[in-house]
């Protein structure tokens, strides 16, 4: 008998893995994850029709119906019955929800706990607080942190002789090395992600100030975790998606080109045959298998995304960082498989500003009228994959959300973007 | 010293957006009104240090100081005074 898999996503797992004893970049106290981040979990798509997507708030029914029409059926459940209920509960993300599951006896939460425990979980990222059916279904927190820490990955690359130009700032005496590096360079915290916990050091004056900051932290007992990477002359970014089974088997899920603007993630291109050929001619896969085997020996198993780059001189830089979790690349691959879309698929993410909660159903309807939506039997069009982050009511004059779409590419991204902007402007939404 | 004006100048520089000139008021929330995000925040805090010749204790600097320009000015004034 098939045991359903329950998919759930937490898009800021690094915050849960962070160690307060590590060195950290200047950041104000009391920063919380952006609320819209929690509501992107509806884009993590189950593989089979019997599987369940467990989201924090209900998936937009109109969007789900559209996905089902494209062939992507699956069951949906949510922790809260509405966005309003979620906002009232002030439990922004899964770690808070897991904590309340352990402390209160709310019926809705106990039902969620039972479902998580009785199904096979497919989490976007392993969290130590998540209820599991047995101890073997999730790696321990130390192994998760080991696999995700930029300093341990850089150290491992050095030990395994995988090309890596990163400098690990582990001890107090390492901090002054930051004054001797060539500018610019990138400082990264152990669990920084998507620009958070990352800083481009451009000049000596800034380096000196940051060294004083780290020395102060070091005197307070903090150390380790920080790395400095040279600014690489990158032709294109790419990532490889892997699965490490609980018995150590390594499976390559796919390779994709990553579109970044500075430190900001912009999108994924799954069509990258030329890149695949260049990578295949290098030692890339051997090097990554070596690295992942070491992570398994340290106790990690589960999804892994390795961020890499093709440099302008034609060399493959194998490991910029490792994200031992699912990624936007794996999400794009999952949607491609779910909807039987071709390899010309792209994923694009846009920040949006909106003035009031938006009716996603109305947006879908308008995109459909404009002929922009992918429909059954068509070769090209867009497929929005997340809706909730534009439905928040906030006290400020405007709210920030994210629009994430697949592009089944018969047109260029700029063309799809122009169509989307034209549509969204009628709803008071601006693409950034 | 016109603190709001100088903070506004810094904001325009960080966001690389001259159209933000004259936009900062005492009620301004730098996060929500001007989109200061995790990518900008280190530059913004280091910029405050340079602009006002203060040294911020980053591990003690409260996020709430960025949710109101008046609070940020109060913080700067307190730290300028403390160093005189």
Question: Can you walk through the features of this model?
Answer:
The complex is a heterodimer of chains A (432) and B (84). Chain A has 432 residues and is an alpha+beta fold. Helices cover 32% and strands 26% of the residues of chain A. Chain A has helices at 13-17, 35-38, 61-69, 83-89, 94-103, 107-118, 141-148, 150-160, 204-219, 273-281, 284-297, 328-338, 360-369, 413-425; strands at 5-8, 52-55, 75-78, 120-123, 167-169, 185-193, 196-201, 226-230, 234-244, 250-261, 264-269, 302-311, 316-323, 345-354, 381-384, 399-408, 429-431. In chain A, strands 9, 10, 11, 12, 13, 14, 15, 16 and 17 form a nine-stranded antiparallel beta sheet that branches. In chain A, a hairpin with a 5-residue loop joins strand 9 and strand 10 (250-261). In chain A, helix 8 (150-160) crosses helix 11. By secondary structure, chain B is mainly alpha-helical. Helices cover 48% and strands 0% of the residues of chain B. The interface between A and B is medium-sized, with 28 and 23 residues.
Short synopsis of the structure:
The complex is a heterodimer of chains A (432) and B (84). Chain A is of the alpha+beta class.
């Amino acid at each position: 008998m098939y045991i359903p898999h329950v998919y759930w996503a937490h898009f800021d797992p690094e915050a849960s893995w962070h160690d307060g004893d590590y060195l950290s970049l200047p950041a104000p106290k009391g920063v919380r994850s952006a609320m819209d981040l929690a509501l992107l979990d509806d884009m993590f798509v189950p593989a089979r029709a019997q599987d369940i997507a467990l989201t924090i708030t209900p998936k937009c029914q109109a969007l789900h119906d559209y996905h089902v029409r494209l062939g992507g059926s699956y069951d949906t459940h949510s922790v809260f019955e509405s966005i309003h209920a979620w906002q009232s509960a002030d439990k922004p993300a899964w770690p808070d929800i897991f904590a309340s599951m352990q402390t209160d006896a709310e019926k809705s939460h106990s039902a969620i706990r039972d479902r998580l425990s009785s199904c096979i979980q497919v989490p976007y990222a392993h969290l130590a607080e998540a209820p599991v059916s047995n101890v073997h279904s999730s790696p321990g927190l130390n192994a998760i942190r080991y696999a995700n820490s930029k300093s341990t990955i850089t150290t491992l690359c050095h030990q395994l002789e995988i090309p890596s130009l990163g400098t690990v700032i582990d001890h107090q005496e390492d901090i002054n090395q930051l004054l001797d590096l060539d500018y610019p360079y990138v400082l990264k915290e152990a669990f920084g992600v998507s620009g958070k916990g990352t800083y481009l050091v451009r000049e000596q004056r800034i380096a000196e100030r940051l060294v004083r900051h780290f020395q102060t932290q070091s005197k307070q007992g903090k150390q380790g975790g920080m790395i400095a990477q040279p600014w690489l002359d990158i032709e294109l970014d790419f990532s490889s998606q892997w699965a490490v089974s609980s018995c150590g088997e390594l499976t390559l899920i796919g390779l994709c080109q990553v579109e970044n603007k500075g430190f900001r993630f912009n999108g994924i291109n799954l069509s990258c045959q030329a890149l695949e050929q260049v990578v295949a001619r290098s030692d890339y896969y051997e090097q990554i298998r070596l690295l992942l085997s070491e992570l398994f020996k340290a106790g990690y198993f589960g999804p892994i995304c390795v961020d890499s780059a093709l440099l302008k001189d034609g060399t493959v830089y194998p490991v910029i960082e490792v994200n031992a979790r699912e990624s936007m690349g794996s999400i794009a691959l999952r949607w491609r498989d779910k909807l039987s879309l071709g390899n010309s698929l792209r994923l694009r993410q846009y920040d949006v500003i909106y003035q009031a909660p938006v009716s996603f159903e109305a947006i879908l309807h308008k995109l459909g009228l404009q002929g922009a939506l992918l429909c059954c039997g068509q070769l090209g069009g867009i497929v929005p994959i997340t809706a909730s982050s534009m439905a928040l009511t906030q006290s400020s004059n405007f709210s920030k959300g994210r629009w994430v779409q697949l592009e089944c590419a018969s047109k260029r991204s700029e063309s799809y973007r122009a169509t989307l902007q034209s549509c969204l402007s009628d709803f008071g939404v601006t693409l950034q | 010293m016109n603190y709001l004006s100088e903070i506004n100048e810094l904001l325009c520089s960080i966001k690389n957006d001259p159209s933000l000139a004259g936009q900062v008021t005492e009620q301004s929330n730098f996060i929500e009104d001007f989109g200061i995000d995790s990518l900008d925040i280190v530059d913004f805090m280091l910029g405050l240090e340079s602009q006002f010749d203060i040294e911020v204790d980053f591990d003690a600097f409260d996020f709430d100081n960025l949710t109101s320009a008046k609070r940020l000015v109060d913080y700067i004034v307190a730290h300028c005074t403390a160093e005189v």
